[in-house]
């Protein structure tokens, strides 16, 4: 089986060097790499050139249109039987392609997705963010594992499709924001067999600061409503949990403020505030203990609590704002 690995790139030359270095160590060698520079100012052509005698790699530059259309451009250049899409901020384990082949043949898949993990070289913040995005104490727990809710939808940081899927679907229809979920839904609706290969994980760096992480997960929340507007049945109760968390947090803060400002207190609000504070502290404690056991680092565990709150608040806020806009200005 010949693979075409497609990597969209935008102003991240350092990341692509790490990714290409990891691909040098693949046990399975029958693959090509197609890098599509999507209108970057800080180009990576000189970095890619360093690998031209070590890897079967081709570099293309195009005007900026977003990662979805950059991947489509890569599909058009691809020669492989199976296309694999990576984000530029990952590191690939040496046996990745062997695990992919085993999974495709075992489950007879037309398309697949794989999970992500934290690499030992990641910074404490990156490890904390990785924990948050895969934790059962956040909505990350439903992504990239066997216990996902409903039909599994591969995500574009680690996604593979057969040539037939590309030819029949035309690839990505959205350029940005939930473009991978929309593509996954169309693949499934077209009758292709799509599944998770749990063993085919990659090390995903994601973001390097909580500010960047907030912006990214806020976009995820908005993107979920984008999908809802196109495919209403794809919105599940679990997708609204971060929004419920945000509303509950705001209400609890208001109750606590009222209780502080009221000299004698209001019995019902006092009781409600005490219960809410207890549940929030219990959640935070359980989150911290689980992160400590999982990450085996006190510093990462503390940062993981911050990352989890950042994720839930950002996703929930994005979800609520986009949902409100969709109701005020419904799609015609």
Automatic annotation (TrEMBL):
Q: Where does the record place the Glycosyltransferase 2-like domain? A: 4-157
Q: Where are the transmembrane segments?
A: 238-260, 266-288, 300-320
A Pfam family of this chain? Glycos_transf_2
Checking InterPro entries in the record gives: Glyco_trans_2-like, Glycosyltransf_2, Nucleotide-diphossugar_trans
Q: Which UniProt keywords apply?
A: Membrane, Transmembrane, Transmembrane helix
Asked if the keyword Phosphoprotein belongs to this entry, the reply reads no
Q: Which PANTHER family match?
A: GLYCOSYLTRANSFERASE, GLYCOSYLTRANSFERASE 2-LIKE DOMAIN-CONTAINING PROTEIN
Q: Can you say what this protein is called?
A: Glycosyltransferase
Which species is listed as the source?
Sphingobacterium kyonggiense
């Amino acid at each position: 089986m010949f693979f075409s690995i497609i990597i969209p790139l935008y102003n991240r030359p350092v990341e692509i060097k790490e990714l290409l270095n990891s691909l040098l160590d693949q046990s399975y060698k029958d693959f090509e790499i197609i890098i599509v520079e999507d209108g970057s100012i800080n180009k990576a052509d000189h970095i890619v050139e360093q690998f031209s005698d070590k890897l079967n790699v081709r570099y293309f530059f195009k005007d900026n249109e977003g990662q979805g259309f950059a991947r489509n451009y890569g599909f058009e250049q691809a020669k492989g039987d199976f296309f694999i899409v990576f984000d530029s901020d990952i590191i690939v384990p040496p046996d990745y392609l062997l695990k992919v082949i085993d999974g495709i043949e075992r489950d007879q898949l037309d398309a697949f997705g794989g999970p992500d993990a934290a690499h030992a070289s990641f910074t404490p913040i990156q490890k904390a963010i990785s924990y948050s995005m895969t934790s059962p104490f956040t909505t990350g727990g439903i992504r990239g594992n066997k216990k996902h809710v409903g039909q599994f939808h591969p995500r574009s940081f680690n996604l593979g499709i057969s040539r037939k899927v590309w030819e029949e679907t035309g690839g990505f229809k959205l350029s940005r924001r939930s473009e991978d979920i929309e593509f996954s839904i169309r693949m499934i609706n077209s009758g292709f067999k799509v599944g998770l290969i749990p063993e085919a994980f990659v090390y995903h760096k994601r973001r390097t600061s909580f500010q960047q992480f907030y912006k990214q997960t806020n976009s995820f929340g908005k993107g979920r409503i984008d999908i809802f507007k196109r495919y209403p049945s794809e919105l599940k109760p679990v997708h609204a949990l971060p929004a419920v968390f945000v509303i509950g947090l705001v209400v609890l803060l208001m109750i606590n403020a009222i209780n502080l400002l009221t000299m004698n207190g209001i019995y019902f609000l006092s009781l409600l505030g005490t219960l809410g504070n207890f549940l929030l502290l219990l959640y935070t404690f359980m989150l911290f203990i689980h992160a400590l056991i999982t990450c085996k680092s006190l510093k990462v565990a503390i940062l993981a609590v911050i990352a989890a709150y950042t994720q839930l608040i950002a996703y929930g806020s994005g979800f609520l704002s986009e949902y409100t806009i969709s109701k005020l200005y419904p799609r015609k």
